[in-house]
Q: What sequence folds into this?
């Protein structure tokens, strides 16, 4: 006899058995709440389409007949789409859980399991969600050495727990050599065929080529959209745009990504043509580095609506790669991945930030330092110090939590943002005098 | 032109009134209450009575600190970062770094030279999530040692032995201090060890911004001479300024900033 699932929200989110259908219904309910949540702005149609695509993808992963491949940030979703499997960028699950108000529950479940609180809350969230059985079970897992060293380790735990194979992508530190591209391309090819074999799916290089063409189409659209964002005043709020995380989206390769990117470009172009700006009297243009708090929009609303300091661009939306060659899909994907400024020497990140400052006419940089993110936080001070030698731009490292709402203090954050805005104001005032 | 600055902190509230010639007419330090509006009003009443001034004599008031947005009679709110910088620079124009330790927060502020002799705040860093190494921390430790917090500075300077305190969590540090007392170590040495630990913690925070001479120490904790001595040792050979009343630097800065919002006579 099937055990009755317990869904009493607010008391116990433990699902009694690992049943994707039950999980699907549970998350569907949570998403409805999210979708109905009021926003401080009218979202773009493309933003609504993006959210629905993410919802649909998650719902797909809850279908019993879906082949679900858990992946870490860096592994290209194109390979997973090419075998008609569903990519589940597992850290994004924690973000989704946080957005629908489940973070406290899943983090608590992680703590109860003895998982270290010093780990990042994305991984803690995944651990807690797995322990609460609200994660769609994987058919295979694939992790990588970049960005996050914690990924392969936690994936090992899950591989053991779900009795599924775990593949590991080693990303070379040196990014600019042909050997590195080859090393990565060979691994991608090997993992692709192994994933297909282990999950009983078919994989063809031709199909991957077609998927790559989808990516290329979306790439062109997004590049054009991001080009429009260079103009001041901004045509879109950063608090809205950051959710596209175009650099690492798990929708790359899908038809939905093509549609969303086209819609985004068209909407931004229309706004630009009509001289529409969501914030009247834009005062400052900020660059936002790293991700965002997923449990509320307070920081963005405060900066953009109250201080008129618009997030003109976000580094997670930077498209760093060139169009890919569908005839050489693995090599192209390897080249794409290695363009990420987060890999290799810190100078790459500094140069990337420096270019964004210039391209997007940036007045100040906010670098969000999220709890437990060894990779990104270790870069923050180095990049800040290097940039200071290069240019006079206010750069603030804001300690802020992505997933765990209980670790958020609105008053503390507002004081820091107020002070940062005062620095921008004084700099501008003296620039006029001088 | 008479302006006032009011700095509402978590532990204490300060008001400074500045007169026509940029002189400090009067100042007051009172304990912060739960009700920030009442705290602000009470503090203002005290300083007005002390100075013989009336509300209508004050041309502009700026509120700062933790409770800056809860002062209904203030004309404007400015953060404690900007106010401490301005206050420190008013006292020591050569200030390029401020290290401030207050009741529950500690911060470091960097100031840079611009053209035409202008200076401006370029960076800052504040403690986050944890109030270890602040005024409240020292109050707890003074309680454990059964000494008045005001005597910590003097006592620490009688220390003859270096003691290492490793815990900065208030609860663990309390246990560690109790353990040291049981080992029959002197209060003077323990207090000195606490000051060393706090100064290193604060400076590790401050290293995230450029530390340039001159360095001015502000905040209530800087009234503790032993704490200042440790900081000066750690910052050597940097030139370190010690204001006579470091606790009022934020309110002073607020009163100075207020002056630019008042139309000068005849304008």
A:
């Amino acid at each position: 006899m099937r055990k009755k699932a317990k869904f009493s929200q607010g008391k116990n989110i433990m699902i009694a058995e690992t049943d994707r259908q039950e999980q699907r219904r549970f998350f569907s309910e949570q998403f409805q709440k999210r979708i109905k949540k009021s926003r401080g702005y009218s979202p773009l149609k493309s933003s609504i389409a993006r959210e629905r695509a993410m919802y649909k993808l998650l719902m797909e992963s809850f279908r019993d007949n879906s082949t679900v491949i858990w992946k870490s940030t860096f592994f290209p979703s194109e390979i997973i789409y090419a075998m008609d499997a569903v990519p589940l960028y597992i850290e994004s699950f924690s973000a989704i859980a946080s957005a629908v108000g489940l973070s406290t529950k899943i983090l608590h479940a992680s703590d109860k399991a003895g998982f270290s609180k010093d780990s990042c809350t994305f991984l803690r969230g995944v651990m807690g969600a797995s322990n609460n059985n609200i994660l769609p079970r994987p058919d295979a897992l694939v992790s990588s050495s970049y960005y996050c060293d914690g990924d392969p380790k936690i994936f090992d735990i899950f591989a053991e727990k779900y009795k599924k194979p775990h593949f590991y992508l080693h990303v070379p530190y040196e990014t600019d050599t042909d050997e590195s591209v080859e090393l990565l391309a060979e691994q991608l090819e090997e993992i692709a065929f192994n994933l297909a074999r282990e999950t009983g799916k078919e994989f063809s290089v031709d199909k991957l080529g077609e998927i790559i063409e989808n990516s290329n189409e979306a790439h062109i659209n997004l590049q054009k959209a991001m080009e429009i964002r260079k103009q001041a005043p901004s045509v879109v709020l950063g608090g809205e745009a950051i959710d596209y995380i175009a650099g690492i989206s798990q929708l790359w390769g899908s038809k939905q990504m093509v549609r969303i990117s086209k819609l985004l470009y068209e909407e931004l172009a229309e706004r630009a043509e009509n001289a529409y700006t969501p914030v009247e009297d834009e005062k400052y243009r900020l660059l936002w580095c790293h991700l965002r708090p997923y449990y509320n929009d307070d920081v963005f609303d405060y900066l953009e609506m109250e201080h008129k300091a618009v997030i003109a661009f976000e580094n997670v939306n930077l498209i760093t790669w060139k169009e890919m060659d569908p005839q050489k899909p693995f090599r192209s994907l390897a080249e794409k991945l290695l363009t990420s400024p987060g890999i290799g020497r810190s100078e790459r990140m500094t140069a990337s930030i420096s270019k964004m400052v210039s391209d997007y006419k940036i007045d100040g940089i906010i670098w969000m330092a999220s709890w437990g993110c060894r990779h990104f936080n270790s870069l923050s001070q180095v990049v800040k110090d290097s940039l200071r030698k290069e240019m006079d731009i206010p750069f603030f490292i804001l300690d802020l939590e992505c997933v765990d709402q209980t670790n958020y203090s609105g008053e503390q954050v507002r004081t820091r943002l107020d002070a940062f805005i005062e620095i921008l104001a004084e700099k501008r005032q003296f620039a006029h005098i001088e | 032109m008479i302006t006032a600055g009011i700095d509402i902190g978590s532990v204490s509230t300060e008001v400074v009134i500045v007169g026509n010639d940029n002189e400090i007419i009067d100042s007051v330090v009172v304990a912060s209450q739960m009700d920030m509006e009442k705290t602000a009003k009470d503090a203002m009443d005290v300083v007005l009575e002390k100075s013989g001034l009336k509300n209508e004599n004050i041309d502009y008031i700026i509120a700062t600190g933790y409770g800056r947005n809860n002062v209904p009679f203030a004309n404007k709110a400015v953060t404690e970062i900007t106010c401490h910088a301005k206050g420190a620079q008013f006292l020591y124009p050569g200030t390029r770094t401020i290290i401030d330790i207050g009741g529950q927060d500690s911060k470091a502020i960097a100031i840079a030279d611009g053209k035409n002799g202008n200076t401006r705040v370029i960076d800052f860093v504040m403690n986050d999530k944890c109030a270890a190494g602040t005024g409240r921390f020292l109050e707890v430790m003074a309680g454990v040692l059964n000494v008045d917090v005001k005597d910590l500075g003097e006592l620490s300077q009688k220390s003859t032995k270096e003691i290492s305190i490793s815990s900065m969590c208030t609860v663990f540090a309390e246990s560690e201090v109790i353990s040291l007392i049981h080992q029959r170590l002197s209060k003077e040495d323990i207090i000195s060890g606490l000051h060393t630990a706090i100064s290193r913690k604060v400076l590790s925070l401050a290293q995230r911004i450029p530390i340039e001479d001159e360095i001015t120490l502000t905040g209530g904790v800087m009234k503790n001479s032993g704490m200042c001595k440790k900081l000066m040792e750690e910052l050597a050979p940097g030139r370190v300024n010690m204001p006579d009343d470091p606790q009022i630097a934020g309110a002073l800065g607020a009163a100075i900033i207020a002056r630019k919002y008042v139309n000068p006579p005849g304008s």
User: Anything to note?
Assistant: The longest helix of chain A spans residues 205-228. Chain A touches chain B through 23 residues (CB under 8 Å). Strands of chain A lie at 68-71, 86-89, 140-144, 166-169, 284-289, 309-314, 364-369, 395-399.
